[in-house]
## 1
Amino acid sequence: MKPRPVSHRMTPILPSWRSLFPVALVAVASLVLPRPGQAQVRWEAVADGYPRTAAEANGFSAHTRHAEMWSYLEALRAMSADMRLGVYGETRQGRQLPYAIFSKPLVSEPWEAMALDRPIVLLAANVHGGERTFREGLMILMRDLATPGTPANALLDRVTVLVAPQINPDGFEASAGGQRGNAWGIDLNRDYVKLEHPTIQGYVQNLIGRWRPHLFVDGHNGGARPYNLNYQCTSHYDAAIELTLICDDEIFPAIDARLGGEGMSAWYYQRGDEQEWNTGGSEVRIGRNYGGMVNSVGILFEAPQQALETGARAGYLGYLAVLEWVVANDDHLVGTVEAARAETVAMGAAPRGQIAVEMEYAAEDEPVDYLLVRGGGFNDPPGTPVDTVHVTGARLMKKPVATRLRDRPWAYLLPRDAEDAVALLRRHGITVEQLTAPASLEVQAYTVSGVQHEEQYNHVAVTRIQVGEVVDRTMDFPVGTYLVPTAQYLGRLAAHMLEVETQDNVVYWNRMDAWVPRPTAGDSEAPLAPIYKLMTPTTLSSRLVGG
Ligand SMILES: [Zn+2]
């Protein structure tokens, strides 16, 4: 990895000072700091004839329901020549999933948007059904995007905006407060790799896959007071680090400034104490990390506890700040993303570098300052005193560190009966070929020293292979053997899904259970994991699978 440049948002603290006061807690009651619910909320004027959301109409005493959202979106489309409205999928309970396209000139297909040579941005919310606050702000922003003459609408000369305001309506409608999972109780923000649920399949294939946004934002509820918005970007060792740095050093400060202009504040997701701030999971199955693995800037927004209208406004400003930053930095964003895409293909074509099959978060190089609020939360007994402390010089735990690395191959080889695994790869758009003539090939393989099935979030028994040794073998591969080149746009994701030790691979998600051998006592040689690695470019008779 390249050394990380010092971010302007992280203030270095002198070592001598740190040794005296490793952690400083300063009472800040006298300082001017934003408090939840106290910011003055003012919205842009609504032009004649344009609709209001149900939440606006009821004074933010209740959320906009799914059917009310559809009425609102249709009314908006009927007013605006800068908006199209479509459906990208359907939920388990048959609800239609809307998306809108905003651009000038108005486009309807990805290749039209790409021909405009502008950034493509996807803004989404409510993948967790009970997490609804930013969805309200996003729907209001949709109106401003659709209304000629507004500052938001003016951005559409320079950016194509897609909006998916409600990814999980079944979860939203499941109860008065909504539920996190979908109608089956499954967490859709852990389904980005296994793609078992139609909602996320539709989202990944029809929006992320077809449109290949340069950047996308996923709006949730969570994080920590006193902030109005918590953010986080892709943080994974195998994603291009530039896609993370562009968030930390440029986009997030732009969000801070936009919210600061209305007395609000923003900071990293998720929570901290006096020593360190922790920042959520590194699994690729989570939307923001999937974003980096498919060479987009994947941003998470979280709405901490606050009044609904205040939170909706924070979300509005956060999404708007992203669009404003994109327009002001359009060439820079597109250039950074395209460089990551080109690098992905290049590092597979002449295989180089390594894949982190295990990683963890360590402290970023520079210490950080932040606020902690104790008491006064929804779960605290009434009357608990509210205490705010200013933590300085703490660790920000988000630097991806590889704890096990494997060499990147030129291609992975899968047995010809690995159809389920191939089907999953192809759902993501990963290129797969098939041998049309037998081939004797020198490959790298992993010996299997153990196989375990274990419970994983929403999944009863994933398959985990324990690798013994890395061995070189010359093996005969019959006609029909699958070949997955790493020199492809989705090469980072393909490697993550085909290395058998990661937490999101085709073996782990049970797509190859029938072909995973078990070591038995008395084996003269340990069995091999059924995915082989061709380490050097090789001429082969093969044909692309599918169209
Ligand atoms: Zn969430």
## 2
Amino acid sequence: MKREKYSRYEFLKKMGFQGGALMAVLASCTKPGDAVLESLIVNKNGETVASLDSTKISTKTTTPGTSTGGTSSGGTSSGGTTATSLPVGNVSTADLALVKNPLVKLDLTSSGASPLATAGGYVIANSNSIVIGKTASGDYVAATTTCSHEPKRQVIFNRTEFYCTAHGARFSLTGAALNTIARSGISTYRTANDGKTLIVYA
Ligand code: FES
């Protein structure tokens, strides 16, 4: 009976190895100088790959990865930078104009805004929905008047915090609940002014 002679490739293929598994076995049992290997590495298009040089393989992988990195480096973080440039506190009239459609625009020279001339003073604006106060350091702070205990619009400014006159819920100037009556925090808003006009915005 004639005995067949197989190359490693044919032998492994008859053993059931295919595709990537076949290539992996061949690579593991072949020396770098083994010329037969290169001719056996065939990609899905039927083209022969030059060699198993891992550097070349990883280079191919890196190329699309680089473009992905470019996408993520992108604009998203630039967008964040834009958000930080919003005017807060005492700013120029030009910077104040950067905020379009503020929730409140208040003439600080008007009689309605006179409570804000004094630290601890406050006004209620925007159809009774926003309270604006002036702190001891001269900053303007603003929050919703709607309490988190019950949906009553009774939150006022009380010198160093916001306070609900209905049942005594207390909130920090950043809106955090300060006692158990306040079930949770309340919304606060950014403020900016140029000395004449005060705006409140989200
Ligand atoms: S509704 Fe504000 S404390 Fe109850």
